[in-house]
Amino acid sequence: MGMTWASTFLHDATRVDRKDLNLTMGLVAGIVIIAPLLAGNGAGSIAGGVFASLGALNLLMAIAARPPVARFPPLAAAALSNAGALALGTIIGTTGWVEVPLVALGIGIILVSASGAGFDSIGLVTAVMLAVGVGIPGGSGLEALERLVLALLGGFWAILGLAIARPILLRRGHFEAREDPRRPTTPPPPSTPVPMPVSRVHVRYAILVAGTTAVGLAISLALGLPRDYWVMLTVLVSLRASIATTFSASFLRILGTIGGAGVALGLTLFIVNPWILGVFLFLFAMALFATRWVNYGIYTLFLTPFVILLLNLVYPGSWQFAFVRVFDTVLGGGLAITVATLWWLRDRVEHTGPPIAGSLLPNPPEGPFTGRGRLRSAQAP
Quick one: which of 36, 51, 155, 232 could link to 59 by a disulfide (CB 3.0–4.6 Å)? Predict the structure, then answer.
């Protein structure tokens, strides 16, 4: 078991898929994401620009790089579901400790529904947006409505940007059929979605992820962590149906976060001008989307300073976010590894067969948490 984890981690950490480097998509994503920030800053509402950029960012994250998800109907559904989840999370975040079971319920429903519709990547990002809404300060009904509108604007702006850039992206092969990082199925025909029966496998996996995410939230609330949603996000993207890929995703995210937080710390200690921060945000956004499928650790290395600099636009001089991000990521990754290990041991003791395998996996495993499966980039801010 230990050798399997170690070999899988070493393979995922050292594998660099140079053919998947996509500078064109990185440039398009950087422009799409930075435009709302520039508009918000110019209009004197940088916080509004941040939420619009989040809508654009997560719309781009929801693209599973398969032809159906690159078309308008699923993209529009992703924009609507992301904005709705952000607003719902904002309201849930006002309920105190009641938010813990509400988060578990909401994430479970999102993951099962998206899995049944064949759009796991959209479901994952929607769950991420729910967690972000819960954790970002300032929750109220009015705030939820404002975030809903801004995220919708950002999401549909991203769709427009993709439509404009689509001919270039098609020539570059960005929308060619590619393995979905979370579902081991044969690529579908380009013109049809991928409806899937909701099985006990999907439901069990969704319950496991939702419950673990809620535990992460409860621990964060008990510790009084200022950015508790970072713990939830780490659990969401790290807890896989394979113990080896859970181990790899968690540790690569931790290592990438530490490196990225160091870069962000150096920048936020000396730079407070929002226009200069905007330049770096553009560069990091471009880099993280260009390397999205190259290596998960590299991707996280660029994602971390992007998120921290984004927060520094709203809270200038908050260099301490770098340390908070590392702590929350370590906590969430440790929780994901612990749950995956306990479930693996449960299966070995009870010999019940595969209770989870087959849902949201990089490759089909031979059993639950078997230590097999290929890690691809999990997306989350």
Answer: 155
Smallest CA-to-CA distance from 33 within 326, 317, 321, 309 is with 309
The span from the CA of 290 to the CA of 269, in Å, is 27
Tens digits of per-residue pLDDT, 152-200?
A: 999 999 999 988 888 887 776 555 544 344 443 444 444 444 455 566 7
Q: pLDDT tens, 296-329? A: 999 999 999 999 999 888 888 788 899 999 999 9
Rounded CA separation 135/93 (Å): 7
Domain boundaries, the chain: 2-13+20-182+190-350
Q: Assign 3-state DSSP to the chain and report helix, strand, coil percentages, each to 5.
A: 70, 0, 30
Q: What is residue 95's DSSP assignment?
A: S
Burial of 324 (0-12, 13-18, 19+ CB in 10 A): middle
Q: Give CA–CA dist 287/34, Å, rounded.
A: 13
Instruction: Pull the structure tokens for residue 111.
Output: 């993951």
- The amino acid at residue 60 is L
pTM value is 0.83
Structure tokens at 92: 């849930």
Tokens of 321: 């976010």
